[in-house]
Design a protein that fits this description.
The chain contains 30 helices and twelve strands. By secondary structure, the chain is mainly alpha-helical. The protein has a three-stranded mixed β-sheet with strand order 3-5-4.
Length: 883
Amino acid sequence: MSEAYAHETAIISEGSNSYDRVLDGAIAISILAFATALLALIEIVPLDATGGELGSFLLSLFAAVSGAVGLTAVASWANVVPVTSQRVRGIAVSLVVTAGLLTAIAYAAAVNLATIFGLVLVVEALVIIGAGISSRLAIVDTEPDSSAGLLAGGAFAAVGLVVGGALGGSVVGFDSVLWLLTALVAGGGLGMVTILPREDIGSTLPVGLVVGTLGVAIATAAIGVGWQWNPETLSGGFTGGAVIPLFVLFGTLLSAWSAAKCRAGFGAQGREYGAFFVINLNALLMVSVMIAIVLFVAVKGAAYAIHGFSAGALTILVVLTPALALATEIARSPSGTGDWHPGAATLFRLTPLAATGAVAAVLTTVLVTGQALRYPFTYLIQVNRESEPLETAITITPEPAVGAVMLTLVGALMSVVLFRRYGSLRNVGATFPRAETVRQAVPAAVATVVLLLGAFVVVGSSPAGVPLGTTLGTAVVGAGGLAAVGLTALPVAGVLTRDGPLADRLQASAPLFTVGIFGALGLSIAVLFLQPTAGVAPSVLGVDIVPAAAVLAGLLCAVAAGAASYGARTTDESLQTRLLGEETVLGLTGAAGFVTLLGAHVLATGARFSVLGTAITTEGTFSWPMLMQAYIPLGAEPGGIMPAVVGTVWLVIGASLFALPLGVGAAVFLTEYAEQGRFTAVVEIATNALWSTPSIVFGLFGAAFLIPRLGGNESLLAGMLVLGFMLLPLVLITSRESILAVPDEYRDASAALGVSRWETIRSVVLPAAMPGVITGGILGIGRIAGETAPLILVLGSTLNATEPVKVLQGFRFVAQPPFIVNDQLLAASASLPTQVWAVIAAGVSGSPQMGWATAAILLSVVLTFYGLGITARTYFRRKLNYE
């Protein structure tokens, strides 16, 4: 290696260019083989896959890698997260190249995945041995030590013992002593080859021998897909389907370590770089093992849980938009501390962005090629106590359509997030007299539309038989849509009609950004609500005016945002860059807002709208029968468990509404108002005792005390109260500890300013303690959401319900106390824990796979609540840090 590579950001020298590129390719192919072996280990891709099946999988892998690398490259070019490390760049390019080569080999050669694994290991072995020899012969500049060290020698001696013993036993049999002799020779030989030579040979030759031996054994089918070994001393055995992926995982770990050392020139830097790669791959392995365990458990019901799942690629891309924004924000933010390895920090920042880009690239491939991704499989249902298989598939369709509900939700979420990032453009830019006139006219126009809307609500769209809705309403809606387009065109027109540098023109047009985008959004919202009340949806040449105006306005906002973003890159003034950044955020907010209005229009009118071949419909392209359907007793397919999901959600919501305010309030009283003495000590002991009380005791309390006082029947309200009593102690304990952890200096400073005790608690103490309070709520919700025993006693074990509980629709007013009643709360309901218990443990009729699938959905619901809680905790922590 050259001296120029002493720093990561240095450009590699010409003499070592080929050497470095080859090693980058070796590291890249190790990463790809490692990931593919993990997928093969959990049987996502079969080892005997050949031809089109294998080519299709590798093509998807190539698309994912290309998307990840491509999006990361764009982010680096746009200075979102600059990637200056030549190692990272070289490995990224090598990932794309090697993924493409593997895809081409799969289509061109009639070999299965196991053979490709073996050939990959052989190639890696040859490259690593060649790199070591090149260093030893001084073909490239490196700085190896005199030896790889005793630690490496001992490790390779152990590897040699295991590999030599396994191969020797499989060849000559374990009945002969030759397998033991083979193990000793292999272990001793590898240990000596590692310790005695110089580091460049000691770190490459043993690795090449081990990895090459594994590769030859797999490539020649000595250990093939159908290989089996059943030792007499074990009740089970080993199969090629498990051994080959494990060999590949081990071989790629070794080769990545050795190639990384070679790439960094051996010595201290090489050991650091090699350790960095092994640690990261080991972390990936540990995470993958945990995921594999979860998948192994979930696979019992996975087929049932995802039967009939179908979604359009465009719909998933729309849902992926917030994830892309979050990944971009993570990439822009610094990660770790100054002590982090630069590569680790960069990897941490880039991983979400790369993963999002990979998924988006695969989905885009589906849309462009028009070929659906389809994974067919069978699942079992119970018919007359016998299992009957049904064929189904997971399908990602290329249908260019998206549901209005999904579009509205995603657009609204992005609008809120972007608007919260927007600061202010007040008193910025040039003075436009006409803009001031427009600024005054827009509120008046919006107020006029709102008054007309109110009039239609009160007197109807045709008062006294006069069709005001179809005449006046149509005119106002049409004029409002055109006015919205005109308003959003103001920023673009202001930039185009002025002279000077782009950044200066954008800054001068700041007033047009605010009046144009905010005015257009306000007017469009008023017009949108006017349509259903007036009973009109005006169109021109068959095109609805309001959605067409929303599309044009959204495009104009996007153009304005793009111009502001580009202008910010052309100026060196920090203040101007910040102002143009505000204009960019405002333009994106307007674009997201008009996307939301587009989806809301389709929902309000029920009319399908198409733009550039993409349809926005009320039905959508997302279908998940397990979650979106109730049980179908006489159907060809059994349907789903939506009533149980809805029941569980309502149980958690009800328990949280009961326990969280009481727990936090009690914690505030005990910490801030009550004197610390015997009373608080007794309360603390009682609270800890309640938290450790078995859940069945709470269920008995509910059955004996609550049910007789709530109508005498098992009910959803009884379940909410019982779970609320279970949640209350933990909320109280964690909230009290969090409040006590707030420094007294905060209270003293507030008191010194003359602030009352309650104001201090409300504005100082509680915000500081909120992260801990939320953590307590998360832990408690995680417990109660999966509780089964108390719900069996107070809620019942409703199985295969055909209708979900309708809590919101159940409220009604009565003329006597309590004046508001809800029959739905006083009726039994299905829930996920009781359904799992009924199907699996109690032996109630139903598919066992349905029970396991219900358990998987229950886990997902719990994790969703965890996610919501973590998000809230993060928000309060950031708010506390900023303030």
